[in-house]
Amino acid sequence: MVVYVLLMICCWIFSEIPMNWFDDGESMEQKAGFFGSRQKIWFRLWERLSRSGWKIYHCYQYIGPRNVRQTWWRKVLVAWVLVSIFGSMSVFWYMNSHTTEKRKETLASMCDERARMLQDQFNVSMNHLQALAILVSTFHHGKNPSAIDQMTFARYTERTAFERPLTSGVAYAVKVLHAQRAQFEKQQGWTIKRMDTHEPSPIHEEYAPVIFAQDTISHVVSLDMLSGKEDCDNVLRARASGTGVLTAPFRLLKSNRLGVILTFAVYKSELPANATPDERIQATDGYLGGVFDIESLVEKLLHQLASKQTIIVNVYDITNSSDPISMYGSSAADNSTCHVSSLSFGDPFKKHEMRCRFKHKPPLPWLEIVSSFGILVIASLIGYIFHATMSRIEKVEEDFLEMMELKKRAEAADVAKSQFLATVSHEIRTPMNGVLGMLQMLMDTDLDITQQDYVRTAQDSGKALVSLINEVLDQAKIESGKLVLEAVRFKPRAILDDVLSLFSGKSQDKGIELAVYISDRVPEFVIGDPGRFRQIITNLMGNSIKFTEKGHIFVTVHLVEEVMGSIEVETEASSANTLNTLSGFPVADKRRSWESFKAFNQESPMFPQTFSSTSSEFIDVIVSVEDTGVGIPRESQSLIFTPFMQVGPSISRTHGGTGIGLSISKCLVGLMNGEIGFVSEPQIGSTFTFTAVFTNDRTNSMEYKSRQPQQINGLSESPLSEFQGMTALVVDPRPVRAKVTKYYLQRLGMSVEMANDLNQAFSSIAGGLGIINVVLVDNEAWSKDTDLASCFSNKLRKDGGSDSPKLFLLANSISSTKINAATSHVYFPTVIMKPLRASMLAASLQRAMGVGNKGNGRNGTVPLLSLHNLLHGKQILVVDDNVVNLRVAAGALKKYGAQVASADSGKKAITMLKPPHDFDACFMDIQMPEMDGFEATRRIRDMEHDVNSRIRHGEVSLEAYRNVAHWHTPILAMTADVIQATHEECTKCGMDGYVSKPFEGEQLYREVTRFFKSTASKSQ
Amino acid sequence: MLGLGADRLRADMNRLLALLFHQGVLDEQFLQLQQLQDETSPNFVSEVVSIYFRESEKLLRNLRALLLERESSDYKKMGIHLNQFMGSSSSIGAKRVRNVCVAFRAASEQNNRAGCLRSLELLEHEYCYLKNKLHELFHIEQQRVMASGVRYPMLD
Q1: Distance, CA of A784 to CA of A780 (rounded, Å)
Q2: How many angstroms separate the Cα of A1020 from the Cα of each of A946, A959, A960, A1013, A1017?
Q3: Do B86 and A976 touch (CB under 8 A)?
Q4: Which of A72, A307, A494, A822 is most buried, by CB atoms within 10 Å?
Q5: Taking CB atoms and an 8 Å cutoff, what residues of chain A touch B17?
Q6: Are the Cβ atoms of A885 and B33 closer than 8 angstroms?
Q7: pLDDT band at residue A82, thresholds of 50, 70 and 90?
């Protein structure tokens, strides 16, 4: 932008300046206008400026290719340089001519001044001469005898010489006719002489001998003026014209200087102004002549004037114009600067002129040179600026293009990097799976301990490598924004169970207590990305496990609104009992970890409404992972979410990992519209908390209530439903841990009672609020007082007999139990290893209870009991080609007290079910090789139909068919695949129902009741 | 001391079972199977499992033969075998084997020979693993029964 402005200004200057320089008038006009209507000018100026700016911009836009633009501005630059050179030269010329003119004027004025003064002085002298002439006429010719003689004349003229400063001498000659010559010569006492030879003059018609002369020229007395050529001409002209007449300059006789003679005629009488020349000649008496020394005259004059040094003056007689006669001054050939002034000395026949010129040549015009040079310099500077600007623009443009190119390449490289990452990680993962699988297989072969160790190490390294690759891939994906979360229906509880099972081994090895608690208000199903949710929790728990050596790790899942509601309550509770934690170790206050969360900070009176809306559509889940590890040093806490940043360089060596996990977690949490925060106290522990927003699963919430028991266990449901209605007593001194245990038991459908220690447990069992089926004692409560414990277990066994509550010990690690086992010689209850998980707990309970179930109907759940009742003593045929399935199904049915017969093909089944037979029911596999279940059933039904019709028609006796009038053996399809065997297909071929394979208690019960009832009603 | 040994063995068994559950090798069906065992059929589980092994080995052999010997493999027959394998596996609760069977069946339905071969290999691997682990389990079980045999009268 700056460059554009500069360019605009430059352009404007280019267009404006020459105009100012070469057109003074216009600029003056403009200046006047500028003061007159300033605003208008400003407006015009702006318009012009902007227009030129736009022009340049447009040029810029239009002139696309770079080279074209380059030549364009180079041309402009050359033109500009030429123009500026021309401009400076013309400025120089203009100023120089100005100076010369001025010099000429000075010369002219000086010359004219000198000419005028010369003329004036000459005129003054002339007037005096005329006055002298009149004096002579008056006193010489007017008086008789003459009052003037040579002496008088000489003395007079001598004394009045100051009046004629220019004349060197005056003389008077009289007109003498030849007739009077003798008389004249006698009277004067000398003869008339010739001027040139000084010899007596030859005979002429008339003579003009000098009679009077000033002393300076007394040698001319008696000389005939008419004998000299110049003088004769002069005399003749003077008497004819009656005015002063000048001779051409000549060398004076004595002084040898240049001079002229001025001659006046003296007449006898007063002549009229218009007298003819003849009359004048007749009236002539004599001639007065004055010698003018021109050279000295001019010199004297010049001396009087200033600056006589600077100019040279020449005076010429130019009567003969082709050959001017120099009267004064050296004749210099130099005719360069010369001013000519004409002089008039009163003689119309003679022309004179004065030529002046400067003595010195004109000095070099420094000012002009400097100023024009300055202009040139400024112009070239502007040109240079223009050039620099354009080059800069060009360079920047080139750089820009280069950058674009580089950027493209960088982007390409980035894409290539991502592709490379994706490809490579994929390519690495594939063979790694092979490696891991093979290692797994290798582990199963016969290896010694060292080999096993090697293989295990290799496998661990391989797994670490795969997880690292996955992490790097994730980070790359997140960075490029390509990670998109899924939205599928999933069970958060199942996810937590999975994660827990992942870490249970590690936590057991380390002896850390690991527990998960999920609030009841968290729905069973939510919609979100289970994989990423799991990844975050795994990450956090992984970190916790890594850095925790003792104590516990406790994961809690709540709804945000729940936590917010409980804030006030908890503050009171925690102040009362500071060590109310899972393992009794102090922990960092987890409430501080979410202090900065926005969701909590917008606490305003309106938040109930927001929650009412969130609960309907979105579910804000808050998950805390609390550990009692080493904690994070305070100086590192701010860096904790930076990728590849670990607390110290030694961390990665001791604990492994890349430090990328938390950064990924943060990104993932962000993608889930949640926030992540933590609080950490060195040597006490850290608590990481994050929130995530999931979508509520509406379909689920509809049936939530009706299917609650199955929903709650969060696993494959049916086998656990047998715990429905049981009561458990949990003995645990720590309320938090007891709460966790209670949570799991409730998930199994049990109702739970709590006791702080064994004594309290005694009393609650004795108090007999209900029948307690299971007693779960925490290891801590158990080992606190071994005597009491043994007493307790004995009492339980004695009291109840076979009905006695089953006793379980909740232990943290094997080692602790083993120690226990070694020290206590009492009856050792079944140990359930922590961490508790629904499936594990269920399995343990089932194993323990399953033994207890035999012959003890009361302990079974309702469906189990009823199944037992229903099937007890029944004859059942199981048909399956699969021996294993056959055995299992038979075993399952036998369990319920049924008598089971097996058939391994459809054909065999048909023969066995041929009436009369003893079977009460048949379970038929659908998929069998030779004859599938549908076909077999169809044939059996045909057979039965045949028999029934025959009985009805009395073709056969009823007794032969055991008094059964209507044969219809209930046939239930068994299928591994519910989809394949739709209900319609089953009923179409005459089946009564289907059960899934392997048997599920509830479904079996449902189907069996249905058909046994129906057969019962039919047979009645 | 023998009684304590039994308890330890029981704990070991639990751990092994827990491990197998964690790994997803077994599912709840196996527990059900265990429940079916009582005095009337004290070796029910091991019986069923040994039948399962016998059958499975036969099936695996057949499958391998089908896949390898003939160029144009009989995918239909393979499907039947796999169904059987799947059925028996789900009966004893061999979850992972069953899952591999499902994938195998999908591959065979698409007549994808390469996929089938891969699945077969995986299936054999999973089967081997399961077999080893179950053998280990029964071994411990046997020891436990022997160890706790002394205690039985005391209990009742």
Answers
A1: 6
A2: 21, 17, 19, 11, 5
A3: yes
A4: A494
A5: 843
A6: no
A7: very high
